[in-house]
Amino acid sequence: MDQGRKRSEPAELFAVLILGLLLRLFAGRNSLTENGILLPGYDEYYHMRRILFTANHFPNTLWFDSYLNYPRGLEITWPPLFDQISAAFCVAFGQHSKAGVELAACFVPMIIGIIAIVVVYYIVRELFDHKFALLATFMAALAPYYLLYTMFAAMDHHCLEVLISLITLLFMIMAISHSEKKYLYAFASGVAMAALAYTWQGADIYLAIFLLYAAVQMTLDLKEGKSSKETATMLLAAFAIAFILVLPFGNASWLSASFHGIGAMIIAISIMFALSHITAKRKISWKAFPLSILIISALFAMLSELAGGFFGVGTMIQSGLEYIWGGGMIGKIGEAEPLIYDAETFSQVVFSNLGLNLLFSLGGMAASLIYIRRSTGTKRQGQTLLLLWMAVTLILTLGQSRFLYISTISMGLLISILFFFLLDTADKRYKKGSTMAARSPRLVAAALFLLLVLPTAWDAASFVQSTPPAVAGDWEESLAWLKENSNTTSFFEAPQKTAEYSVMSWWDYGNWILYLAERPVVANNFQAGVEDAAKFYLSESEEKATAVLDARGSKYILADYSMIYGKLSSLTTWANEDLGSYMKMEDYGSQYSVIPQERLFNTTLGRLYLSDGAGTGHFRLIHESKTFFGESSTKSMVKIFEYVPGALIKVRAGPGQKVGALLNMTTNQGRRFIYVNEAKANGDSFEIRVPYSTESRNECHAITPYLVFSGNKDAVKMGNLDVSEEDVINGRTIELTI
Q1: How far apart are the C-alpha atoms of 133 and 379, rounded to whole Å?
Q2: How far apart are the C-alpha atoms of 360 and 352, rounded to whole Å?
Q3: pTM for this model (two decimals)
Q4: For the chain, counts of helices (H) and of strands (E)
Q5: DSSP calls for 652-720
Q6: By the 8 A CB rule, do 123 and 116 touch?
Q7: CA–CA gap between residue 690 and residue 721 (Å, rounded)
Q8: How many CA atoms lie within 13 A of 134 on its CB side?
């Protein structure tokens, strides 16, 4: 019977892997379009840019990009391993063209996700048994948030980050469990640690779990009167290998944090081992050991402030903690916000499947502690490490919701442990009685399985019903139009030198513009240039707005519906402004109404998006997308504006007059609007800067000449005026007497 079970184990695991593969293919199906590959999110587009570059310059990758943070350019601080692995996969299949690289690379996250599921199986198989491992593997295949990062076309390094973290954990557990091969597995774990550092700048967050394990295990060893030599040597061996492997790039900005962190952890483990040895040798109470660690940690924190952070290590730790748990990203970057930070987010989490899974995970932790108490020897140590790893990933998620991509793996593991613990408990109790449940153990198991697994399965099913890629539709069409209807910029494929001009947009859209329109951007998803972008859009004078554009070399500006009705809070947060002064929310009981305030209409964003550039002399609407919102005052989803010198109309009129110009316009979508601007007095004349010509060569064009008027309450004079495209582009002055 056992032999039959062993023979079925590979088949059962294979079935789960097939399920995981199909889910990932199905979830990413919308990325395959008739126009080629569309990636699902935002960061994926910069990864694909880097992968495309690397595939054509293998193994060299992109370290500086003049198309970012224009005109300064930006050093790329993403560690390169994910992009290089993806590029190597493309090269192996002979793909170097843009379309070929995109298609081949999009399979890499799926492959990584399937390998991660296998690793989960072997972690749990090592510490429990096949049944535990199979359920944990099934839960990992379903894990909703990791599913999003490992579906077809999910080109983000976090999929590899999770896999390598799991591999590091697996080899460390193997080193604990197999003393005869301890150093072999420790070596493998050290290699994985280095790979993690080459994948993500925050690798120290995961590596610190092993530092925490060292402290806990040494405490338990002291309590039980055992030596911690094996624990210390195993961990030091792994960290030493990692340190050697990251040493060649230790001073690089993208690796220095991990390099210093690994070095600091080697020192910390050595100090802890020395303390544990002294405590045991002098027969001091084991309680003194954790207390001494806390005291030394507090002293280190204080001294690092006085001593300049001990070569930057103290400062790095402090900034890392503030970044993860400080809540500094609330209102700025959605994925970097804490999971729960106010009453609304508390309610959203608690009354959701995620909330149920968190509750089940707490039960799983309790069950894990019971299993640890029942276990002995190396299995107990391995289970302790696993519990710490799962607990830390859950805590990380409380600091930043982005860590759901790894904590949902932990939740699946904990739910699996809870399931078998409850099943074993029920089995023991029911064997003593003659209840119906005792006669129907399968019914109990099925009910328990549905209760614990259904929330995860439900979320996985809803995530698989994927929405179209975020850029699909209006943004895709608008960027394709911009690429075809604006002057091509230089150095796109080898972005070392500064190109001719840039595009101003909010940072969310920077990677899209760079990759799909192939134009340099001021702000992108690395938040470089975001302060100037916020300053531009919220500026309340055209002079301040154009000063930003001039400094940044911007020729085109993009604005969309979401910047007004979704992302405005982010703009105001970055600019340290009060959202309430731009937008009011009225509560009508059953619904809320969002009401723009006068200050919003006075901003550059308001003048452009809400008023089509009315009241400005340098910004003209040149394209709008096809989806419209509103009834009385329709607004397209995406609008593209051009920054032009503008023609200067000088009107001679007497004092006390009001002078202005009005122009009837039609957009590329056939929507009509009126451009109007008021003149400013300058000596004995009035001046009006206008951005539109009266020629019809552009898609968005005038349908009448300018109506220029001057007058007061007693009388008004009017005259028509034609303005050529050359007048607008060259900033010519046109004199007019009415």
Answers
A1: 15
A2: 13
A3: 0.91
A4: 29, 21
A5: E--TT-EEEEEEEEE-TTS-EEEEEEE-EEETTEEEEEE---S-S-SSSEESS-EEEEEE-SS-EEEEE
A6: no
A7: 12
A8: 15
SS3 at position 30: helix
Which pLDDT band holds residue 326 (cuts at 50, 70, 90)? low
Q: Show the DSSP H helices in 465-607 as ranges.
A: 474-485, 510-512, 530-538, 542-552, 561-565, 568-574, 598-602, 604-605
Strands (E), 577-618: 583-587, 592-596
Q: What is the pLDDT of residue 313?
A: 55
DSSP letter (8 states) at residue 461: H
Domains present along the chain, CATH in parentheses:
474-643 (3.40.50.12610), 647-737 (2.60.40.3390)
Average pLDDT in the 113-121 region?
A: 98
Element (H, E) at 540: none
Compute the distance between CA of residue 436 and CA of residue 414 in angstroms, rounded to an integer. 28
Owner of token pair 């996969």: 89
Burial class of residue 64 (count of CB atoms within 10 Å of its CB; 0-12, 13-18, 19+): exposed
Q: Is 400 helix (H, G, I), strand (E, B) or coil?
A: coil
Round to whole Å and give the CA distance between 86 and 48: 9
SS3 310: coil
Pairing of strands 554-560, 502-504: parallel
Half-sphere CA count of 520, side-chain side, radius 13 A:
30
Q: For residue 127, which of 168, 172, 165, 188 has the smallest C-alpha distance?
A: 172
DSSP code per residue over 104-168:
HHTTHHHHHHHHHHHHHHHHHHHHS-HHHHHHHHHHHHH-HHHHHHHSTT---THHHHHHHHHHH
Cβ(654)–Cβ(711) under 8 Å?
A: no
> Could you give the CA distance from residue 156 to residue 86 in angstroms, rounded to a whole number?
10
Kindly state the DSSP code that residue 513 receives in the 8-state scheme: I
pLDDT digits (tens, 9 = 90+) for 431-467: 665 555 455 677 888 899 999 999 999 999 999 987 8
Is the separation of the CB atoms in 137 and 10 below 8 Å?
Answer: no
Q: Whats the size of the chain, residue-wise?
A: 738
Q: Which helix (H) or strand (E) holds 738?
A: none
Measured CA to CA, the distance from residue 443 to residue 41 in angstroms comes to 43
Q: Does residue 58 surpass a pLDDT of 70?
A: yes
Closest of 319, 269, 272, 316 to residue 291, by C-alpha? 272
pLDDT band at 69 (very low <50, low <70, confident <90, very high): very high
Whether the pLDDT of residue 316 is over 90: the answer is no
